[in-house]
């Protein structure tokens, strides 16, 4: 097991994506933490996110409803574990609000927004409890899906959001 400063240790069952975004961290953080902006980019191409609820505090609800073109819906919910505006968001589906354990924990996400000369070094990490879930997430299309969401996020922060 790797021991390092909290948040910097590489998890055993981790998938991640990173990109330099031509927008300041505060703006990218807002696109992640304000539902009206998150709904514009959340999910891969061809999906919409018509619903998003956020209680932006530790233990607060984070819920999204994604819809495919054929109307299939995916309701995801969990809670925020850490919020350090505008640098870091951590959330998990392991709990529901009130620290009620979920039926099945799948992942914890650690999203960081590091300043690089006024731009944002964006990193999204998906940490899984076991190799099976990690492999399943990869086979579901983690890199493609999260990459397409990231393309959409970049478009929102560079072309749609006011400074």
From TrEMBL:
Organism superkingdom: Bacteria
One Pfam family, short name: AHSA1
InterPro entries referenced in this protein's UniProt entry, alphabetically: ASHA1/2-like_C, START-like_dom_sf
Domain Activator of Hsp90 ATPase homologue 1/2-like C-terminal: start-end pairs: 22-157
Coiled-coil regions listed in the entry: none
Family: Belongs to the AHA1 family.
Protein name: SRPBCC family protein
Taxonomic source organism: Pseudomonas shirazensis
